[in-house]
Structures are given as structure tokens and as C-alpha cells.
Amino acid sequence: MSHAVLWFLVKNMIYPPSPKNIELLSQRLLGSAIVALPTETVYGLAGLASSDQAIAAIYAQKKRPQFNPLIIHGYNLDLLKSHVIWNPWAEKLAEAFWPGPLTVVLPKNQNSNLSLLALAGLETVAIRMPQHPLMHAVLSKVGLLAAPSANPSGSISPTCAEDVEIAFHGALPVLDGGACIVGLESTILDLSGEAPQLLRPGGISLEDLENLLGPLTKGSPLAIKAPGQLETHYAPNLPLRMNVSVGQKNEAFLAFGPEYPEEQEGLLNLSPKGDLQEAASHLFAMMRKLDQSHYAGIAVAPIPHQGLGLAINDRLKRAAAPRG
Ligand code: TXA
Ligand code: MG
Question: Where in the cell does this protein reside (predicted)?
Fold first, then answer.
């Protein structure tokens, strides 16, 4: 047997989504272990939101700076509300978009028993109700989970169970929920100030939010409270260039739209029909696939800056940022 096959047999920690495995992994979470779980956006590295032990393990596993707070995930709206000071914006947004790829930041309820480590000492809490049925099944058993994306800090977020397995060398159990439908992290809105403020574009478009709330203030880069907004993030190993119509010979090419081929050596197309939702769902997987050392870099075709294009361009811009 080859080393590769042996490694897979020994290290495979991907759990098929049977009721037995859902129960098993929920029990581990209740015992303060950490587990990777699927959501509709990206896979999350989950731990019990009230357990400092679990939260410390998440930061250690990701090598994440401890000043960067985690999103609290819940399926029970009353339970989520009990940890924050709820307001009418949150009510409207939850009604329209939950469960779904939207996170809201609200002032913390002083009686909350959420791990202070998970909140990085802030007086606000980021909460979201995810949409994936397996995440629901687990949340119904365990209550609230803190879950950052299940990738080492600064690297590309995982959109399938195998991405997580490879990123952490099989060190963690992963519940297999297949490929993530949205493929980009949730949109984050800060509702703790005078007006709602966009902190991170994501799976719910700015247009949809503004239809509901009116024009939004964009988080100013100086006032950044979400350290996920650190310049370099989602970094592939190769340098990446945006808004390129024709790549150079030695570059891999990430295309978008019908004027490019669907697929050929060194070229992948985010959406041959030019659909931004499809492009979002393929973005991270295709960046990973093209991130191979025999190319000099990755060139990316222009992506329209509307709808989910805002979130796609945001992630590409960070992937393209000069490395510190
Ligand atoms: O789609 C998602 O949101 C995924 C899935 C797993 O749910 N999670 C995710 O988590 O993207 P993470 O940790 O990779 O990104 C969370 C972002 C970080 O940029 C963090 O700084 C910000 O949320 N954040 C968390 N709590 C915050 C708070 N109280 N105020 C402002 N930003 C906050
Ligand atoms: Mg992340």
C-alpha cells in the first residue's frame, strides 16, 4: 500500500452525515472538543460558545490572533437574542434573511455567559443563524457555537470537507456536508452604532440589504473593528492580479463569463454564463486549484462590481494584497 493511501486511511477524519455521527460529534462539542461543520457559506471550526477551553482550542488550531473575535452561531432565535441587545434593524434583517448568510453585530447583553475569549473582550457580539441542515441538526442539540472559517488564519476558506481535512492534516473531525452552496462568508453588518454599517461584504448582497434598510454606511478602513479585514487574507501561495483580460503565458487564469473558454490547461471559468452567484460558489475552490507552484501567478478576469461581485472582488483584493 502506498504512503498516500495509508495516510488517508489513518488520517481520514471526514464523518458522513448520518444521525449517529451527528449525535457523536454533538456530544464531543458538548464536552468542549472542537469539530469542523458545514454551513451554506464556508466550513466552520466550531466550539461551544460558552466554553473557554473550546474557544482557546479554536484560536490555537487556526493560529488566529486572539484579538480577532468569533461569530456566534445559533438556530434558536430567542437563544441568540438573549445574549445581545436586540433592535428593530436586527428584527427586520432576521425576518428577511435568517437562516442565511448574514451576520449582525449588536451590543452584548451583560448577563451573557458567552466565552469572553470568543468575543475578544469586545462589548459587542456578532451573531448569525446559518442555513445548512446539518449545522441546524447540530445546533439543535448543542445550543450556540462559535465558529470561524475552518482554515489556518489568513489562508483561503474551505468550501468542502476535504479542504478542511487537508488544511489541518486530519487533526480534526469534519462533518461532511458536501460543497457549500454560497461559497463566500456571510455579510457582516454592524448594528451597534447610530446607523447600520457594512463591515464585510458577503453572501447577502448590498443591494438586498439597502432595499430593506435604505443606504448603508461602509465601514471606514480606519475604523475597522473586524480584524478579518486585515489587508492580506484569503492568501494563495502564488501572487494574484485582478482585472486582467489576457493573462501572461506562465500565469494561471481565472476567467468569468462567456467570452472565455469553460476550462482548459491552466484556465478555470468561475461562471461561463456570467452568473455572479455561481462565480461566488466556485471562487475559493478554483483559487485553490490554480494555486500550483508551476505557475508564476494567478491572473483574474474583471468581475462586475454589483450583487455578489462586491464580495468576490473584496476577497480577490485581499488575496492580491502585498504580503507583509
Ligand atoms: O460565513 C461565515 O461568516 C463563516 C461561517 C463559518 O459561519 N464564518 C466566518 O468567520 O467567516 P471568520 O471568523 O472567518 O470571520 C468572522 C469575522 C472576522 O472578521 C471578525 O473580526 C468579525 O467577524 N467579527 C466577529 N465578532 C465581531 C464583532 N463583535 N465586531 C466586529 N466584527 C466582528
Ligand atoms: Mg475566516
Answer: Cytoplasm
